[in-house]
Amino acid sequence: MYVLPLTQSAISLMSSTNINLDQSQLQVLQSQLTSGQNISQPSDNPSGVVAVMGVSAQEIRFTQYQTNAQNGLVVAQMANGTLNDAVSVLQSARTTLLQAGNSSITPSSATGLIASLQSDYNTLLGMANTAYMGNAIFAGTSGSKTAYDSSGNYVGSGPSPSTTVAPGFSAPTVVTAPFGQSGTPTNIFSVLSQAISDLKSGNYSKVYQGDLQSFDNAFNQVTAAAATQGEYVQELQFMQNQAIQSLQNVQAQYGNLQNINYPKLTTEYSQQLSNYQIALQVVSQSVQPTLAKYI
Questions:
Q1: Are 57 and 167 in contact (CB under 8 A)?
Q2: Helical H runs in 129-211?
Q3: 191-247 pLDDT tens trace
């Protein structure tokens, strides 16, 4: 079979096409080396763009989870510290109530016990109304400025606040009404108010026999609330660490997709540049006029 020889114009056209391809590839490699990224625009790698967008969305989500856990942890640790301090105050108050059982108690000594219990009452009320960013942390989801009024009545409402720290999972941050609900026998403020009233009326035996038992029941509730709050802190710390680990994994995936391999890309660039220079030389020689052209 006879094959037509390639004409000079055909050779030039093919060479020019190859040069354009080499030049285009060089531009892509230069862009990657300059930006440090595999993908600068969607046309570079359409399927890669989809993968990068998916990983970027995950990074945004896990960054938010980490932020949520951190913010929740700030309030949870504040509540935990407050309740632990409250337990210490209540231990002091219990010691004061025990002194009411002393057979040598007098109205004068009772006055000192009353002052001590009133001081503990005021301290506990201040703790119960601990606020973060203007809102009482123990007032549930009510957004109230206080959780307990001056009489010790609970004025908050709603469940314990929570924050989303993982896909489909919200962790509670602060216990609700840890010092007891209004009108219940375990409201620590009602118990202390009753003990103070009985001391003022000289009913010392009731303080030691009745009020002390009521106090212990209320004390146990605060202690249980403190324990639960400690669990909230531990859970938030765990979820924060999980979010950080997940975020690091996602960022590593993003890096694998987007960050270039400098040694490899530099070698590719050098090879492509060499091919381009050779192609230019071949074209320059192929288009040189020959003597036959003028005969």
A1: no
A2: 188-200, 204-206
A3: 999 999 999 999 998 998 899 999 999 999 999 999 999 999 999 999 999 988 887
The CATH fold assigned to 54-254 is f41 fragment of flagellin, N-terminal domain (1.20.1330)
Residue recorded with tokens 């990657």: 32
Please say if the pLDDT value at position 276 is more than 70: no
- pLDDT tens digits for range 75-112: 999 999 999 999 999 999 999 999 988 878 899 999 99
Map residue 221 onto helix, strand or coil. Answer: helix
The answer to whether 286 and 8 are in contact (CB under 8 A) is yes
d(CA 203, CA 33) in angstroms, rounded, equals 87
CA angle 166, 174, 214 (to 5 degrees): 145
Q: Has residue 4 got a pLDDT over 50?
A: no
Mean pLDDT of 151-180: 96
How far apart are alpha carbons 160 and 137 in whole angstroms?
A: 9
For the purposes of burial, counting CB atoms within 10 Å of the CB of 201, is it exposed (0-12), middle (13-18) or buried (19 or more)?
Answer: exposed
Helices (H), strands (E): how many in the chain?
7, 4
Among 197, 185, 211, 219, residue whose Cα is nearest residue 97: 211
**Contact between residue 250 and residue 167 where contact means Cβ atoms under 8 Å apart:** no
Q: In which residue are the tokens 């074209």 written? A: 283
Measured CA to CA in angstroms, residue 259 lies from 31, 114, 248, 251 at distances of 12, 71, 15, 11
